[in-house]
Amino acid sequence: MKDSELEELSPLEKKVFKKLQKLGDRKISEAVPIIAREEAIHPDEAAKLIYKLWKKGFIDLRGSEPHKNIFKYLFSVEGAWFHIITIVLLITVALVFLVSEPPLLYLRYILGSLFILYLPGYALIEALYPRGDELEPLERLALSIGLSLALVPLVGLILNYTPWGIRLTPVTLSLAMLTETLITYALFRKYRYYRLETSA
Fold first, then answer.
1. Under 8 Å CB-to-CB from 99, ≥6 apart: which residues?
2. Among candidates 44, 85, 77, which has minimal Cα distance to 181?
3. What is the 3-class SS of the chain, one letter each residue?
């Protein structure tokens, strides 16, 4: 690491970076208390500094043991997003078909808005850009909303030319299946990048 590259770091970040180099291949759970104690800062602040160094590309954070297949990856922390989206989809579909009176009706409105305005586009963005560092979070949010506003009318247009037509049941099920298909594809792509990174 050249000194010119370290100039973009704050003085405290430089200290933490040098300390991490001395500590070597320690676990984060071991490094955070050491840095917090030696720099007289809160452990949360030490963890944030390590995270910033990782985001800037100065350090490499890896899990202790890479997942050997996609099923282990799916049931790890890295695959938690897939389960969250699937659960949100299932709850939304259940609310659409089973709830028609308050107070759960308001939850149906909230999750229904998320289901229409965000999730289809989010699933497509995750499939197109599976690596987390390709887009900033705000870009992901904006593109997810924009692509949802493009995908939902396309689903409606296709359903219009089918025997089912544009009704609540076919629209809800079509959007749920589309979103689930896209996040499943995204999961495979994320796992492939994960294997490339951990084998490097």
1. 105, 107, 108
2. 85
3. CCHHHHCCCCHHHHHHHHHHHHHCCCCHHHHHHHHHHHHCCCHHHHHHHHHHHHHCCCCCCCCCCCCCCHHHHHCCHHHHHHHHHHHHHHHHHHHHHHCCCCCHHHHHHHHHHHHHHCHHHHHHHHHHCCCCCCCCHHHHHHHHHHHHHHHHHHHHHHHHCCCCCCCHHHHHHHHHHHHHHHHHHHHHHHHHHHHHHHHC
Whether residue 177 contacts residue 151, with contact meaning beta carbons closer than 8 Å, is answered with no
Helix pair angle (119-128, 137-160), 10° resolution: 110
Question: What is the rounded average pLDDT of the residues 184-190?
Answer: 95
Q: How does pLDDT run across 21-49, given as a tens digit for each residue?
A: 887 777 777 888 888 888 888 888 888 88
Buried b (16+ CB within 10 A) or exposed e, 51-81: ebbeeeebbeeeeeeebeebeebeeeebbee
Alpha-carbon distance of 142 to 151, in angstroms, equals 14
Measured from the Cβ of residue 143, the count of other Cβ atoms closer than 10 Å reads 17
Q: Are 179 and 120 in contact (CB under 8 A)?
A: yes
Phi and psi at 151, nearest 5°, equal: -70, -40
What is the pTM for the complete model shown? 0.71
